[in-house]
Design brief:
The protein is of the alpha/beta class. The chain has 12 helices and 11 strands. The chain has one domain: Spore Coat Polysaccharide Biosynthesis Protein SpsA, Chain A, CATH 3.90.550. It is globular, with a radius of gyration of 19 Å.
């Protein structure tokens, strides 16, 4: 791998207002048995998880503004294409059917979908994975995200996770932290133990009960393929979900990064960042703070935590106005005259 090799960008995106997609989602929920329904995670099927408030459009504007030398852009979707998107040799739509085995579909769990990203044909060794509500917030220095042989990861500002088994009432990231700890504990007595001794802390892996930031995720494709064969149990679990469940949490947003830390292929870096929760009473103040700090924070997340709030609620327009204020210039990824209807 050469340091000058391009760094591709991968997004997950869904338009939760699409009538055909909504019908499919509704039918999938009806098809779950009582045991599957019992295991659904908190917020696994709320509207806020699938609502499109144009975040992808503005994230791409931020990408073009702050990281113009990025590689190819891939957008993973479920039979959908943003109406405003201008397809070109710089960007590709990857349909679920082109990436995920048909007998594993449909799925509405981002933790499931993202576990296949490294299989995208032609994807670069180094790539950055985004949820569509994550944005660069300042000019990107690649050396802040990758170093020769590894990646940088960032902890969230959330409280530490308790050291206990996975809980039905916990968030996916909290349970992912617990699941990773369980896996590493079991790995100590397995054939993986020699790999874990690469961790430069007293010669062994030390678990940290914190979640990772909602950030752009720098990834190494070779590491994902290695882990797919080394931890098939975790990949199989997360790839069995239709909707997010509490006892099979995401692994790309936790386990993969902990593995790279454990094997010396990642270092922790204190990226400057903000996390905006749109479902809180002070969301307007949070957005004002964000716009004032744009250009001085490396990334931010505008997370739709409004759950089942109606999409006509005025606060969604406030979020769009804030994004437009920050990134008013259309990117080269946009069709300036999108089809109507």
């Amino acid at each position: 791998m050469k340091t000058e090799d391009p760094i591709d960008i991968v997004y997950l995106w869904v338009d939760g207002s699409d009538p055909a997609w909504r019908t499919k989602r509704r039918n999938s929920l009806r098809g779950l048995n009582q045991f599957d329904l019992k295991d659904l995670a908190r917020y696994s099927n709320v509207e806020g998880r699938f609502r499109d408030n144009d975040e992808l459009r503005y994230s791409l504007r931020a990408l073009e503004q702050y990281f113009p030398n990025h590689g190819h852009v891939y957008i993973i979707t479920d039979g959908q294409v943003p109406k405003w998107l201008r397809l070109s040799e710089r960007i590709s739509i990857i349909d679920h059917l082109d990436l995920i085995p048909q007998d594993k579909l449909p799925t509405y769990d981002s933790g499931n979908i993202e576990s296949y990203i490294h299989r995208i044909p032609g994807l670069s060794e180094r790539y950055i994975y985004f949820n569509d509500d994550v944005f660069f917030g300042a000019p990107v220095d690649v050396n802040d995200w990758f170093w020769d042989g590894g990646i940088y990861v960032a902890w969230s500002d959330e409280p530490y996770v308790s050291d206990e088994p996975m809980r039905t009432d916990a968030t996916a990231l909290e349970n992912a932290c617990r699941q990773s700890n369980q896996w590493f504990n079991s790995a100590r007595g397995s054939g993986h133990s020699q790999r874990l001794k690469l961790q430069p802390v007293n010669g062994q892996y030390v678990h940290t009960f914190r979640t990772f930031a909602h950030s752009p995720r720098p990834m190494l494709k070779s590491v994902l393929f290695e882990l797919e064969s080394m931890a098939p149990d975790l990949f199989s679990m997360v790839r069995s979900t239709v909707f997010r469940v509490w006892n099979k949490p995401t692994i790309v947003s936790d386990f993969v990064m902990r593995w790279t830390l454990a094997t010396g292929q990642a270092q922790v870096r204190d990226h400057s960042h903000l996390y905006i929760s749109t479902g809180t009473d002070d969301s307007a103040a949070q957005l004002d703070l964000l716009t004032s700090k744009l250009g001085s924070i490396e990334f931010f997340c505008i997370n739709d935590t409004s759950d089942d709030t109606e999409s006509e609620d005025p606060h969604f327009e406030s979020v769009r106005n804030a994004m437009e204020k920050m990134f008013p210039i259309s990117s080269g990824f946009e069709n300036l005259n999108p089809p109507q209807g």
